């Protein structure tokens, strides 16, 4: 009697491809996109190709931009055009900007005329502006429409719009007159007109405004969407709250990179997908420049070599003074850069900011100075000192130098981003890379001049 061997696939009841397709159909698009990102491009598309078109578009939109470009580049023109046609206008325009020129030329003729014009219009806006990130899928209503007719109209157009919670009231020339929310329509009398219930105090941005400013408006006023108008006041698009989150995240990432002296943009590849050589290129420039500037610190130490030779204990506490100055300066720069980014302060507030930071630094300096004095007295009791110099005197020198370092480093940390903002430069770029080197130089000068003055060297 022969025993039939079970098919492993049947025994486990698991077909990896079918499991992924089921995941795509049943799970959130972000979860499915994360799973597909682990596959090679061809295998990922084999899964997506058999998924419901609307779900396929959602999942594709959650893939990293670099993976989107790579995947689209492998598709036949018909599949490429179908995929782009199904995408939301803002995502489609964003992807189109990233495609190689040959892919753009290949796919445009295969798109419907309305989609081609929409792509051209959205991609005409300069990168980083509100117009470049807005979508053209928004709901509009004429002012003389009744509430009953408006609700019926929204039922008809809802499947093609990104959001219908806000409907924007426009005239025949698409001038923005006001807006109504879905709640307004539901609670209003059926025979009331849109003009009767619309809100005329509309928060909006212009297409030429910086995208971060538009995102901050959404954040500040808790908006679901922000209307975007052209220079004539005509409605041309909206930015939704999810796009605002992406913008703020992108800008925050850029600020972090600049604050840590990493050149170039954050890019879209992600950390692991970025080649190591690109990481090197983005970091090496500032590091080489700052290393060259750091030679000044070496020259200062060389100039005061005799002082160090006479009182060798001073060398033991140099790192403590330098690190403390760097830490306090970085704290000050961080809070000022953040306040500038959030528009809480402006360069005109420089004196108020410096006064506040001076008050903070004096208190910090008093606390840290006392701790430094106690540390020297406690840890260096058995250290040999030159005749005429006591441990208390050395502790006083180190505490005084650290106190001066804390105050100056805090003020420098606040002043650098304010000066950069005044000169129309990026405060994060100027503040962090230059801060550490400048604080090191000033700290060494304070340290050695204090030692000479108080110890009479």
What structural keywords apply?
three-stranded mixed beta sheet; MgtE N-terminal fold; transport; 457 residues; metal-binding; 3 domains; transmembrane helix; CBS-domain; 6 strands; single chain; mainly alpha; 23 helices; membrane; Tetracycline Repressor, domain 2
Condensed summary:
The protein has 23 helices and six strands.
Give the helix level as a range of percent: 55-70%
Distance between the termini: 103 Å
User: Class by helix and strand content?
Assistant: mainly alpha
What is the CATH third-level topology name of the largest domain? Tetracycline Repressor, domain 2
Strand proportion: 5-15%
Order of helices and strands: HHHHHHHHHHHEHEEHHEHEEHHHHHHHH
Strand numbers in spatial order across the main sheet: 1-2-3
The CATH level-2 architecture of the largest domain is identified as Orthogonal Bundle
- By DSSP, the count of extended strands is 6
Question: CATH-wise, what's the superfamily of the largest domain?
Answer: SLC41 divalent cation transporters, integral membrane domain
Can you summarize the main beta sheet? 3 strands, mixed
Q: Report Rg.
A: 31 Å
Please give the domain count. Answer: 3
Shape category? elongated
């Amino acid at each position: 009697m022969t025993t039939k061997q079970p098919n492993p696939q049947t025994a486990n009841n698991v077909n990896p491809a079918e499991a992924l397709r089921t995941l795509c159909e049943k799970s959130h698009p972000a979860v499915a996109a994360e799973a597909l990102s682990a596959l090679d491009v061809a295998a990922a598309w084999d899964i997506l190709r058999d998924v419901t078109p609307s779900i396929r578009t959602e999942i594709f939109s959650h893939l990293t931009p670099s993976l989107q470009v790579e995947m689209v580049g492998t598709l036949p023109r018909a599949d490429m055009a179908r995929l782009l046609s199904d995408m939301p206008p803002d995502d489609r325009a964003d992807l189109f900007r990233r495609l190689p020129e040959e892919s753009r030329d290949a796919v445009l003729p295969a798109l419907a005329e309305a989609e081609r014009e929409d792509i051209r219009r959205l991609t005409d806006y300069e990168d980083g502006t509100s117009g470049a990130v807005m979508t053209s899928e928004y709901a509009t209503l004429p002012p003389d429409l009744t509430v009953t007719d408006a609700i019926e109209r929204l039922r008809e157009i809802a499947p093609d719009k990104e959001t219908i919670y806000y409907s924007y009231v426009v005239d025949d020339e698409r001038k923005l007159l006001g807006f109504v929310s879905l709640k307004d329509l539901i609670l209003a009398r059926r025979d009331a007109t849109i003009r009767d219930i619309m809100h005329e105090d509309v928060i909006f941005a212009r297409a030429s405004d910086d995208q971060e400013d538009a995102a901050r408006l959404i954040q500040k006023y808790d908006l679901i969407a922000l209307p975007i108008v052209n220079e004539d006041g005509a409605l041309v698009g909206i930015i939704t709250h999810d796009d605002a989150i992406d913008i703020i995240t992108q800008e925050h990432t850029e600020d972090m990179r600049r604050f840590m002296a990493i050149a170039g943009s954050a890019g879209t590849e992600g950390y692991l997908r970025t080649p190591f050589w690109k990481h090197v290129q983005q970091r090496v420039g500032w590091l080489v420049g700052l290393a060259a500037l750091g030679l000044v610190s070496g020259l200062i130490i060389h100039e005061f070599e005799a002082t160090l030779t006479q009182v060798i204990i001073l060398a033991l506490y140099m790192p403590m003074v330098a690190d403390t100055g760097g830490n306090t300066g970085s704290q000050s720069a961080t809070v000022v850069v953040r306040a500038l980014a959030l528009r809480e302060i402006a360069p005109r507030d420089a004196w108020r900011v410096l006064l506040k930071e001076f008050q903070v630094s004096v208190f910090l300096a008093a606390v840290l100075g006392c701790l430094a004095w106690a540390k020297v007295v406690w840890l260096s009791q058995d250290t040999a000192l030159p005749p005429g110099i006591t441990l208390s005197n050395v502790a006083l020198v180190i505490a005084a130098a650290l106190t001066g370092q804390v105050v100056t480093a805090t003020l420098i940390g606040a002043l650098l981003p304010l000066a950069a903002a005044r000169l129309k430069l990026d405060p994060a770029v100027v503040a962090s890379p230059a801060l550490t080197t400048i604080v090191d130089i000033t700290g060494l000068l304070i340290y050695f001049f204090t030692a000479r003055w108080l110890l009479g060297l």
